[in-house]
Design goal:
In the C-terminal section; belongs to the trehalose phosphatase family. It comes from Paeonia suffruticosa. It is a single chain. The protein contains 18 helices and 17 strands. It is of the alpha/beta class. Strands 5-4-1-6-7-8-11-10-9 form a 9-stranded mixed sheet, with helices on both faces. A 6-stranded parallel sheet has the order 14-13-12-15-16-17, sandwiched between helices. Bound molecules: adenosine-5'-diphosphate and 6-O-phosphono-beta-D-fructofuranose. Adenosine-5'-diphosphate binds next to α1, β12, β13 and α14.
Length: 489
């Protein structure tokens, strides 16, 4: 990953995100192994190269002792990463609790977890206190490493309290905040007991960014309706101070995927997969095993397709690669068992002694294996119930320039706004509709596939992660200059 290797600087950038791009595994008292973390934020930011960047975040592991902390800090420094050490209790309350059990489902319109809704409501205040405390710990580390002129770019729903903490340290710090999830309708946001505190803190940033115009609009509405502030075409105004709010749709480092397809190891892998699935069309799902990804709904739609189309039963296979994520949160544990149960039932129902219709893997694939899989796929199925953007759909398109496969894409993913014209858009809650889209995709004529693919390929290769980051940072610089001009006038 070039991002982590260092390069000549244009501008110093401090990227602050809950998760570092590498996760640490302890190998001994003072030795650590680093592995690339999985997730959209990491994928996008690793594609950003034109800054002298440092990444501040949590290494995904509890390190209670000083020897371990010192050794890990040193190992991470080689990757231009700076750790924030969070103890087990904070991780439990802040990350598992407030971030993943409250904000995450709410921002994706899924409501609080059904079974323990009352318990969640009761623990709300202590979890929010832990959230604020964790955000303050991130701010302390940023402040320690900050140099005048740095751009501080805060990411995601884990760090909504950070802009406020940073500006309290230094009101002149250039602070941007970007959300990688949807921002929900203000009617959803207003159910949060901490609704105003979160909004007020985010408004301390100079520039606030979202993947789509709709999310930005929801945020501005929340500020006007909940805080009574004024929304303008530029953003939100509070007593003469403007916070710029805008849409900055993210992308991927498409060249990296396209180049990977030329690597001999990937070509070999493509050959193996093509032989392995000869005579069958390959359908693919690649997701974190997350409640928002609509994995059970996707599998049920595939079952319906097989049920209604007996002639396809031994001619199509669904490969679902689902890397486990947030495994300490009960809702995620339930999802894993649910998916296993459904896959087992369908394979029992439609499998033969020599083949099963669904291959489900609970793991992450390395980059080259993933590119090979994308390249051999005939139909990709992205059925998120809600998704900030969804970069898997972009990665699939980048790897499909020879095959020109079809993308079935949820209308509730941010990517529907950019890849909608090339994809078959579906409502993932409507299993009948998804099943019939599978038929449409499998039967699509080559000219139609070519036309749809071309549209998406041009988008994915021109709206890259690099362009996204440059636009955001340059807009942040301009916003700060404009604000200074306004105050001196
Ligand atoms: P999210 O931000 O919710 O994680 P995205 O679709 O935007 O969703 O990004 C997911 C990223 O994680 C992509 O870069 C994808 O390649 C990677 N990823 C997801 N599942 C797997 C997996 N099973 N193996 C390897 N990488 C994965
Ligand atoms: O896109 C949302 C997000 O929370 C990102 O911040 C992150 O890349 C991804 O999901 C993975 O989540 P986690 O860091 O909780 O494993």
């Amino acid at each position: 990953f070039e991002w982590l290797d260092g390069r000549p600087s244009k501008q110093r950038l401090l990227v602050v995100a809950n998760r570092l791009p590498v996760s640490a595994i302890r190998k001994g008292e003072d030795s650590w192994q680093l592995e690339v973390s999985v997730g959209g934020l990491v994928t996008a930011l690793l594609g950003v190269k034109e800054f002298e960047a440092r990444w501040i975040g949590w290494a995904g592991v509890n390190v209670p002792d000083e020897i371990g902390q010192r050794a890990l800090t040193k190992a991470l420094a080689e990757k231009r990463c700076i750790p924030v050490f969070l103890d087990e209790e904070i991780v439990h309350q802040y990350y598992n609790g407030y971030c993943n059990n409250i904000l995450w489902p709410l921002f994706h319109y899924l409501g609080l977890p059904q079974e323990d809704r009352l318990a969640t409501t009761r623990s709300f205040q202590s979890q929010f206190d832990a959230y604020k405390k964790a955000n303050q710990m991130f701010a302390d580390v940023v402040n320690e490493h900050y140099e005048e002129g740095d751009v501080v770019w805060c990411h995601d729903y884990h760090l909504m309290f950070l802009p406020k903490c940073l500006k309290e340290y230094n009101s002149k710090m250039k602070v941007g905040w970007f959300l990688h999830t949807p921002f929900p309708s203000s009617e959803i946001h207003r159910t949060l007991p901490s609704r105003s505190d979160l909004l007020r803190s985010v408004l301390c940033a100079d520039l606030v960014g979202f993947h789509t115009y709709d999310y930005a609009r929801h945020f501005v509405s929340a500020c006007t309706r909940i805080l009574g502030l004024e929304g303008t075409p530029e953003g939100v105004e509070d007593q003469g101070r403007l916070t710029r709010v805008a849409a900055f749709p993210i992308g991927i480092d498409s060249d990296r995927f396209i180049r990977a397809l030329e690597v001999p190891q990937v070509q070999e892998h493509i050959k193996e997969l093509t032989e392995r699935f000869a005579g069958r069309k390959v359908m693919l799902g690649v997701d974190r095993l997350d409640m928002i990804k609509g994995i059970p709904q996707k599998i049920l739609a595939f079952e319906k397709f097989l049920e209604e189309n007996p002639s396809w039963r031994d001619k199509v296979v669904l490969l679902q690669i689902a890397v486990p994520t947030r495994t300490d949160v009960p809702e995620y544990q339930k999802l894993t068992s649910q998916v296993h149960e459904i896959v087992g039932r369908i394979n029992g129902r439609f499998g033969t002694l020599t083949a099963v219709p669904i291959h489900h893997l609970d793991r992450s694939l390395d980059f080259h294996a993933l590119c090979a899989l994308y390249a051999v796929t005939d139909v990709a199925l992205v059925t998120s119930l809600r998704d900030g953007m969804n970069l898997v759909s972009y990665e699939f398109v980048a790897c499909q320039d020879s095959k020109k496969g079809v993308l079935i894409l949820s209308e509730f993913a941010g990517a529907a706004q950019s890849l909608g014209a090339g994809a078959i858009l579906v409502n993932p809650w409507n299993i009948t509709e998804v099943a019939s889209s599978i038929g449409q995709a499998l039967n699509m004529l080559p000219e139609e596939r070519e036309k749809r693919h071309r549209h998406n390929f041009v988008h994915v290769t021109t709206h890259t992660a690099q362009e996204w980051a440059e636009t955001f940072v340059s807009e942040l610089n301009d916003t700060v200059v404009e604000a200074q001009l306004r105050t001196t006038q």
